[in-house]
Write a structure and sequence with these properties.
It is a single chain. This protein has 178 residues and is mostly beta strands. The protein has a domain of 121 residues. 13% of the residues lie in helices and 44% in strands. The longest helix has 24 residues.
Length: 178
């Protein structure tokens, strides 16, 4: 009597199907999941934050207390053009009157929009502070003043700035006036 060797083709095929289906499900599940959960709360310690880019004359300083931003001050360069003159000029927009006690969202992003007069120009100001990456972004748009009489030069300005801030910031000492 001759014995016939058993065939393992069916068993190998079943194992291969299970492995392929398992890998497929794993790839699908991994593609839909982020590295961080969507409900992450960013820790924002109380303290003074700030940054300065002295060669450009730009800075930002603010305080955080109980996840609320206070005393936000910044200065960025803006580009201005006058309707009766060709070309543009670099100017500064200094802000120091942002609304107080504005909250920081759970994701660590603070956004605020307001109108303010800085360096004699009434501008629409937007601020965004990202505490997860320690970046402050600002934009200022100064529209032409509608009260300017025809024939006079109306000035319009705009500018954006971005600074990396840090906690425990102390402003650099000012040089003494001569």
């Amino acid at each position: 009597m001759r014995l016939v060797h058993a065939s393992y083709k069916r068993e190998l095929f079943a194992v291969l199907v299970v492995v392929v289906v398992g890998l497929g499900v794993s790839f699908i599940a991994a593609g839909g999941a982020d590295a961080r959960p969507a409900n992450t709360t960013v820790v924002v310690p109380d303290g003074t934050y700030g940054a300065a880019r002295l060669p450009r004359g730009e800075y930002v300083v603010f305080e955080v207390h109980n996840r609320r931003v206070r005393n936000l001050e910044f200065q960025i360069q803006i580009t201005c053009e006058t309707s009766d003159m060709p070309g543009t000029e670099q100017r500064f927009f200094t802000s120091g009157r942002s609304p107080q006690n504005a909250p920081i969202r759970r994701n660590g992003i603070f956004t605020l929009d307001w109108r303010e007069r800085g360096n004699g120009r009434l501008g629409n100001v937007s601020a965004e502070l990202k505490f997860a990456t320690d970046v402050a972004n600002f934009s200022v748009i100064v529209p032409e003043d509608p009260s300017i009489a025809p024939g006079e030069g109306a000035e319009s300005c705009n500018g954006v700035g971005s600074l990396r801030f840090r906690r425990g910031y102390e402003p650099p000492p000012l040089s003494p006036a001569p």
